[in-house]
Design a protein that fits this description.
Radius of gyration: 25 Å
GO molecular function: ATP binding; protein serine/threonine kinase activity
Oligomer: single chain
Protein name: Serine/threonine-protein kinase
Distance between the termini: 51 Å
Strand order of the largest sheet: 1-2-3-4-6-5
Number of strands: 16
CATH superfamily of the largest domain: Transferase(Phosphotransferase) domain 1
Domain Protein kinase: 29-307
CATH architecture of the largest domain: Orthogonal Bundle
Strand content: 5-15%
CATH topology of the largest domain: Transferase(Phosphotransferase), domain 1
Mean pLDDT: 82
CATH class of the largest domain: Mainly Alpha
Organism: Kineosporia babensis
Keywords: Kinase, Transferase
Length: 504
């Protein structure tokens, strides 16, 4: 790498944390223009000088010089979190990391030792769109953002700095969540973050949290609050709390939290008001009722509001017509014609995702499908895999009890491990057997989603590696380079069941 054209710097970048000239080389990429900067880093557009490399990328430069020892400590932690996040997490709506470089440039002390994260390049940020008004395609953007958040939380991670600047839009309009510098892995019910953040998107409890040796104690519900603020802006073009600047808006939010002001929702589309109200619940305890998986369901429902929201007169007329049709034609009210809207207890629930003729108990079909599609968005975690693991673990026996191994229920959970995979508001105490399927099956989806990125680089069939990791651990499968020999009989049972359940 070389110094490049220092004259390529502009007044725009004069006060950036890392100033990089046009033409500067990082591996096979050459800097072509600045994109954006924050308190702790600078992002530049770069193009490939090699046909073998990604042609257009974003380079995120994290500084090491001109900082105090305390700042350097914060920066090192943030860099480590960002790199760890990119290495452990993989989802269609998370920005893709292409590599990490450390600059070796003794001729330029400003750049020598700087860490550079190479990322796929987006078209623009959601913030750039919202500066002009509501997002033209807000419902779709919010659904994809909710998918990313459900994956993060299901994998045991909190983003910690969710805001429109970190929600990127690709050339095709799809969403990518970026910037994991403030992300943290959740240990039990909490994680820890440094005392920094974006004021407009900070949950109320983060403003009053006490600083410990590990940082501020945070919960997943803080991300839910940030989503609520983003959703309000995306749908209306305005913040949910009035004020000329971030400080004034923070004061307005505090008055709302204290019960002095109502939440202004007049300009929010009616179908979205409940979503935003639950996200912006004033206290953590109330907000925790909406975990990320539930939020994703609410967002999807808001995009397709029920026709029952019409006038009472129309509802009465519709009901009368329905009664006449049922009486005249002799049809069952819930007769199913192959759509995916069958009742949850139906043997035909989502036949496009899970075969209906292979002995999967009817009462568990919806739980199985939702464990794979709503609790997780990783491509390797699908309904046939969830069903196959349940078949291999218990033969769908919800009352299974194996005290010698401390395993119980349809998914053979041990109480301690199950506790870590429950929604945040349920993790304060260790669950006591028996574990109902309504608890066990969604937790299986969350745990598979947590394991998937940890074994995706292991050779072999990823789904079978996942099954082995569920029975043991991700590290066991990585160390064995695949399915350990002692688990072959178990994995063969999973494979046989998977082949029976998958829709060809």
């Amino acid at each position: 790498m070389h110094q490049g054209d220092r004259a390529g710097q502009t007044a725009e970048t004069a006060n950036w944390p890392v100033r990089v000239p046009n033409g500067y080389r990082v591996g096979p990429w050459r800097v072509v223009s600045p994109i954006a900067a924050g308190q702790w880093g600078s992002v530049y557009a770069a193009e490939s000088v090699s046909e073998a490399a990604e042609p257009a990328v974003a380079l995120k430069f994290l500084p090491t010089g001109t900082l105090t020892p305390r700042q350097l400590g914060h920066l090192a932690q943030m860099a480590n979190r960002e790199v760890d996040g990119h290495q452990q997490l993989s989802h269609p709506h998370l920005i893709r990391c292409l590599g990490v470089h450390t600059l070796d440039d003794p001729a330029d002390p400003h750049l020598d030792g700087v860490v550079v994260i190479v990322l796929e390049r987006a078209e623009q940020s959601l913030e750039a769109v919202l500066r002009k008004g509501p997002a033209p395609d807000a419902p779709r953007v919010l659904e994809q953002l909710a998918q990313a958040l459900a994956y993060l939380h299901g994998s045991g991670w909190m983003h910690g700095d969710l805001k429109p600047d970190n929600v990127l839009l690709m050339a095709d309009g799809s969403v990518r969540v970026s910037d994991f510098g403030l992300s943290t892995q959740i240990d039990g019910t909490h994680g820890y973050l440094p005392p920094v953040g974006s004021p407009d998107y900070l949950a109320p409890e983060r403003r009053s949290a006490q600083l410990t040796d590990n940082g501020l104690k945070v919960r997943l519900s803080a991300d839910i609050w940030a989503f609520g603020v983003i959703a309000h802006r995306a749908l209306t073009g305005r913040f949910p709390f009035p004020g000329a600047d971030a400080r004034a808006r923070a004061e307005a939010a505090a008055r709302y939290v204290n019960g002095e002001w109502p939440l202004a929702l007049d300009d929010v589309p009616p179908a979205w008001r409940d979503v935003i109200t639950s996200c912006l619940a004033p206290d953590h305890r109330s907000r925790s009722a909406t975990d990320a998986a539930t939020l994703l369901q609410q967002v999807r429902a808001a995009q397709h509001p029920s026709p029952a929201a019409g006038s009472s007169r129309l509802r009465l007329v519709g009901a009368a017509v329905a009664v006449l049709l049922v009486a005249a034609l002799g049809l069952g009210l819930f007769q199913h014609f192959g759509s995916d809207d069958a009742p949850s207890g139906s043997a035909d629930y989502r036949p496009d995702l899970l075969r209906t003729d292979t002995g999967i108990p009817t009462q568990y079909r919806q739980l199985i499908v939702e464990a794979a599609t709503q609790e997780c968005q990783h491509p390797a975690v699908d309904p046939p895999l969830v069903a196959a693991i349940l078949k291999a673990e218990s033969n769908f026996d919800a009352d299974l009890s194996d005290p010698d191994n401390d395993e119980y229920g349809i998914a053979r959970w041990t109480p301690r491990v199950l506790q870590q995979r429950l929604p945040a508001e349920q993790q304060s105490t260790e669950p006591t057997p028996p574990f109902p399927p309504e608890m066990s099956i969604p937790a299986l989806g969350r745990y598979l989603c947590y394991l998937a990125p940890r074994v995706e680089q292991v050779p072999g069939d990823q789904r079978l590696n996942l099954a082995a990791a569920y029975r043991t651990s991700g590290s066991t499968v990585r160390e064995a380079g695949g399915v350990p020999e002692r688990l072959q009989p178990y994995v063969q049972r999973v494979e046989s069941a998977y082949d029976a359940y998958v829709v060809q």
